[in-house]
Amino acid sequence: MNHINGSLESIKDKIKNHTAAVSVVGLGYVGLPFAVEKAKVGFSVFGIEQNPIRAEKVNRAENYISDVKDEELKQVVASGKLKAVTNFDQVADSDAVVICVPTPLTKNLTPNLSYIESVTREIANHLRPGQLITLESTTYPGTTDEVMKPILEEVSGLKQGEDFFLAHSPERVDPGNKRYTTHNTNKVVGASDANSLDVAVLFYQQTILDVVPVSSAKAAELVKVFENTFRAVNIALVNELALLCDRLNLNVWEVLDAANTKPFGIMPFYPGPGVGGHCIPLDPHYLEWKAKEFNFNTHFIALAGEVNRKMPEFVRTKTWRLLNQKGIAPSKSQVLVMGVAYKKDLGDWRESPSVEVVELLLKDGVDISYYDPYIPEFSIGDHKLASVELTDDTIGAADLVLIATDHSQIDYVNLVEKAQLVLDTRGVTRHLDCNQGKVVLL
């Protein structure tokens, strides 16, 4: 048996027997659920987390990710199957290394791959024959082959597909989704050589119900970027419709609810104060940036981003309009913002349009208070804000209540009854009978 077949069969046997050691780099909303799933079926998992506070929490089985069940985290930590570390020393003893690090954009909307490059160099320093490296971070097509592969091969002196195996399998996590989890969400896997694809598909099949192989890492990277671009474009369409309905003095929610009764040829999307989170505001720009390398301009994608970025400013303008109609200057007003998370029932305010709206209103001199049961405090520059207690007096004291995030646990009937005026950017009150003329929809 030659060394290629030896490395290939050795890691495949370990994966099948669940005796492979797995390192997961980054224990955030993607990494921790993945690490727990692997540990649950018997793999020995090391979570490499450079935030020592997070690492300590994992080792104490203190959960900080809503998609992870407390009892499952406690079980895998207590059994010794999951342990968090803050360095890369365990990589040399691992059979598979899964990278789940952030891929932000610069201020100029260009990809920032510094986390991927840094982690890849760390892994390369410990790389040995027979290991599988997979990238789950969302990025532009070509990152795995054009950025990671050269670093791994140059630093280690090993060759992909012969000595080690490299693949891309983009994360498909929908935080807060109770139906689709890491285990039952179809997983796309791509690699630029047959051996790497073979090993990676087998690895993911151990804990994920359906694995979908594609012809290359580049194809897998494009799959994920397209998925989120699809959402961004359709959200932009309904956001633009909301802007038009505002001019036409029509209720955009009525139009959308009626349109969505069609049993074919349409898919529900809804407007809001903007787009937020770790994917939709960022991922289309990866594709837009990469396309320019081939002298191709993605006009449609660029326009969608432009429309979505307008929405916080539109909410600001509509807030002004409503306050002025009450005879109150924005700089003399009190506004209570309901929710600053980017998505309902989550404690995540990354890239949240609600936060951007708050920032704009603060610049206008508005006296801002907010309520969010999942985010007790946050900062915007020098402004430190803390969630207020949601009482009838708190609601009634505000000149305007701005519903920016539609958390489920809020009593919207009582909110409308006690408020002087409500601007609902999420349409959560549109079917309530208690409107009493107080509610203005986006």
TrEMBL record:
Task: Extract the Pfam families matched here.
Answer: UDPG_MGDP_dh, UDPG_MGDP_dh_C, UDPG_MGDP_dh_N
According to the entry, every stretch annotated as the UDP-glucose/GDP-mannose dehydrogenase C-terminal domain falls at 336-431
According to its UniProt record, which protein family does this protein belong to?
Belongs to the UDP-glucose/GDP-mannose dehydrogenase family.
What's the protein name? UDP-N-acetyl-D-mannosamine 6-dehydrogenase
InterPro entries reported for this sequence: 6-PGluconate_DH-like_C_sf, NAD(P)-bd_dom_sf, UDP-Glc/GDP-Man, UDP-Glc/GDP-Man_DH_C, UDP-Glc/GDP-Man_DH_C_sf, UDP-Glc/GDP-Man_DH_dimer, UDP-Glc/GDP-Man_DH_N, UDP_ManNAc/GlcNAc_DH
User: Keyword Oxidoreductase: yes or no?
Assistant: yes
Molecular-function GO terms, alphabetical: NAD binding; oxidoreductase activity, acting on the CH-CH group of donors, NAD or NADP as acceptor; oxidoreductase activity, acting on the CH-OH group of donors, NAD or NADP as acceptor
Keywords annotated in UniProt: NAD, Oxidoreductase
Q: Some GO term, biological process aspect, for this entry: which one?
A: polysaccharide biosynthetic process
